[in-house]
Specification:
Layout lengths: L3 H4 L10 H12 L19 E7 L4 E10 L2 E13 L3 E9 L2 E2 L2 E6 L6 E8 L2 E2 L1 E7 L2 E8 L2 E10 L4 E2 L6 E2 L11 E3 L25 E3 L10
Antiparallel strand pairs: 1-2, 2-3, 3-4, 4-5, 4-6, 6-7, 7-8, 7-9, 9-10, 10-11, 12-13, 14-15
């Protein structure tokens, strides 16, 4: 005999975004790119070489594969990391002639504004589904060639922790020596606003002169 209470329960509906969420969840847990991937050995990248903290755009630096074009001697081309000196960075598995054109992530490390997101750029614009992580929650965003169409609350964030050195949100399983997304100064800024480690002024290069793996918060004993 069917219980009356059970009879009133609404049937469980299939989540139309289940496959999208599974793909985004997988993307969060993996490295953005593999430097040794055969794709970077193709003819398209034959002249690309590695550059580190090379100026690109206004108040930005780029580290990754690059080649010379009319846009500049070190135009992003291949895997790479674009960092804005104010604390925003974009990591993409594929740049083509300075334009992001593949899967990647973005991170905001500014104090009180810690956020990150995962998805795919097409011709420099966010397209399709992205995941947005902020304030302890995860949201699914849908873009149409750079235009945000909708944002849906997904789940509580249990994957990310905040780096104690650079303030970035990151997933420990994707924190490897292959990517080294933590940017920092090994020495504190002095009274003149200059970092003794590299001689840079804090107003010019607050993001750091060194890079390494993120540092996880120390777990306190219960």
């Amino acid at each position: 005999m069917v219980d009356a209470g059970d009879a009133k329960k609404a049937p469980v509906k299939d989540d139309p975004l289940a496959k999208v969420k599974a793909q985004l969840d997988s993307q969060m847990r993996c490295q953005v790119f593999e430097r040794t991937s055969p794709v970077y050995e193709e003819e398209e990248f034959a002249r690309a070489t590695y550059v580190s903290i090379s100026p690109w755009g206004n108040s930005q630096v780029y580290s990754g594969l690059a080649h010379g074009t009319h846009k500049g001697a070190h135009t992003p081309h291949g895997w790479g990391i674009l960092e804005h000196h104010e604390g925003f960075l974009q990591v993409c598995s594929m740049w083509r002639d300075g334009i992001a054109d593949g899967p990647g992530l973005w991170v905001n490390v500014r104090e009180g504004q810690e956020q990150c997101g995962y998805g795919t750029w097409i011709d420099g614009k966010r397209d399709g589904y992205f995941s947005l992580v902020k304030e302890g929650g995860v949201y699914v965003e849908e873009y149409d060639m750079g235009e945000l169409r909708r944002r849906i609350k997904w789940r509580k964030d249990k994957l990310h922790v905040k780096c104690t050195r650079c303030n970035a949100l990151f997933v420990p399983s994707a924190n490897t020596s292959e990517t080294k997304l933590c940017r920092f100064h090994p020495e504190r800024v002095n009274y003149e606003g200059i970092y003794p480690c590299c001689g840079a002024r804090a107003v010019v290069n607050p993001r750091g002169c060194s890079n390494s793996m993120h540092v996880e918060p120390v777990q306190e004993d219960p």
